[in-house]
Amino acid sequence: MTTYIRGVTSWHIYGLLLRSDKKYVEAIKCYRNALKLDKDNLQILRDLSLLQIQMRDLEGYRQFFEITDDQFDFHAYCMRKTTLHAYVELLKLEDVPRRHSFYCAIEIYLQLHDNPLTSQSKEQEADSENLSAKELKKMLSKQRRAQKKAKLEEEHKRVEREQQQNQKKKRDEEEEASGPKEELTPERLERIQIWDTAGQERFRKSMVEHYYRNVHAIVFVYDITKLSTFESLPDWIEECARHSVSPSVPRIMVGNKCDLTDTCQISTSCAQRLADNYNLPLFETSAKDPSEKEHVDAIFMTLAYKLKNHKPLRLKQLPRESSMVHLSQEGPL
């Protein structure tokens, strides 16, 4: 008896070790050798079944549980042994009432309760008892055609409903994309005041606080024909950070004089790498080339769009004799 127990336990433990090493085929052989010594050992049977499921050995799974494939959601229940065992026990519990002698009668009564017979169906059933085989066949064929027609009509109605819903959804999306056509009145327009340092960077120590105070957006401009202006951009960006300019403040980078291609010293790819490094939109434009007018407009439209999304702008009323318009809650841009 002692040798018998040692043999079963040894094969079982050896199988567990092989399974932990992902040697599943050898582990299955060990489980089966253990079952030869004790075919009613539930623990070994469960371990073997779980391993077979994991390896998609569905044939062995069916032989053990004798349950059809569609009774399991394998992807949800086959990973944990305890959950699988509980689910199997639940299925076995469901089989208990099914084996009862009155289960068939109960199922019929439940179907009658869910689908009660109408007076028309009762009359048809009564008439069918008095019909010949040929007439009964004709009546059943007529019923099948009527059911098929009703099913087609229902499918047609469903398709029409889906088409109407899709059309309504498309119209709503188009209306939302287009938006209401508002009239551009002076009361609804907002002005953006652009301040240029205009060479004041020569006096950075004395003027720096002035043009960084309450700033709401920044445009970093460099000359594509002068490498020194491009190389100084990181210094300007770091200076913004030193003066507590929030990273959320909209910023863009602009390469000027792009019409001077013969004397260009900064390529677009090089500028784009720097812009991507600081997460800045990049524009290249020229104030002299008429074909670049759209790029100039795009710069200020992008700036206005970012400002509008950054925080709401409020138009401050100024004295009539003043020509300056300040945007935002605190001060000028």
Number of helices, where a helix is a run of at least 4 consecutive DSSP H or I residues:
14
Average pLDDT across residues? 72
Strand order of the largest sheet: 1-2-3
What's the CATH H-level homologous superfamily of the domain at 2-98? Tetratricopeptide repeat domain
Q: Roughly how much helix do the residues carry, as a percent range? A: 55-70%
Q: In CATH terms, what is the architecture of the domain at 2-98?
A: Alpha Horseshoe
CATH class of the domain at 2-98: Mainly Alpha
Q: Which regions have little confidence, pLDDT < 50, spanning 5+ residues? A: 312-333
Radius of gyration: 40 Å
N-C termini distance: 93 Å
The chain-level structural class is mainly alpha
Order of helices and strands: HHHHHHHHHHEHHEHEH
The main pleated sheet reads as: 3 strands, parallel
Beta fraction: under 5%
Query: What is the total tally of β strands?
Result: 3
* Net shape: flat
Biased composition (Basic and acidic residues): 150-163, 178-189
Pfam family, one: NatA_aux_su
Region (Disordered): 145-189
Keywords: Nucleotide-binding, Repeat, TPR repeat
